[in-house]
Amino acid sequence: MAQKVSSTQTTELDKFIEDQLVPDTRFRAEVIAAIDVVCAFLRERCFQGADPKVKVSKVVKGGSFGKGIELKGRSDANLVVFFNNLTSFEDQLKGRREFTQEIKKHLHTLQQEKKFQLEFQIQDEQQPNSQVLTFKLRSPELQQEVEFDVLPAYDVLGKPVRTRACPSTCLYPLRVCVCVCVCVCVCVCVCCV
């Protein structure tokens, strides 16, 4: 018969969490290292030779892997790619397909450079007009993988200019959805902007 959680020893709970829920430490470290490479690549080399106005301004990690709360076999991750040339959500929607294709082309280049200890697989579009790019990082040895969605986005907040220091307890957080197909909320202290 199953034991009640309240009567279970903490060491047993810790062991269960370590064995059943937490991803392998080596896999986690390899994924984090690979994502750092992908993010740097997107910021520094993506859109070279393209329209000179288009540049990646920043890449934000989201999903459970981005937040550091990943679970074994059940983790998701998002890389939200912000561009410096977008002036509205309409610009984002109009250019989304083009941005996604350009990112995919550059990720294929990165894939050929083989900078990863993990298998790096760019997924074929599952829908003909898909505006999200998906890739997997996989460890055949550890039998673990994580799937990433790359999402082009308009940075609605831009570069905030702070006029004063942010208080440690702000009562007026602002949440803004920056992506059409996946809600990625960015919290900003209104009194700091």
UniProtKB/TrEMBL annotation:
Family matches, as InterPro entries: NT_sf, Polymerase_NTP_transf_dom
Domain of life of the source: Eukaryota
Any one GO molecular-function label of the UniProt entry: double-stranded RNA binding
GO biological process, one term: negative regulation of viral genome replication
Keyword terms: RNA-binding
Annotated ranges, domain Polymerase nucleotidyl transferase: 53-111
RNA-binding recorded as keyword: yes
Pfam name, any one: NTP_transf_2
UniProt GO cellular component terms: cytosol; membrane; nucleoplasm
Family: Belongs to the 2-5A synthase family.
Protein name: 2'-5'-oligoadenylate synthetase 1A
Source species of the chain: Cricetulus griseus (Chinese hamster)
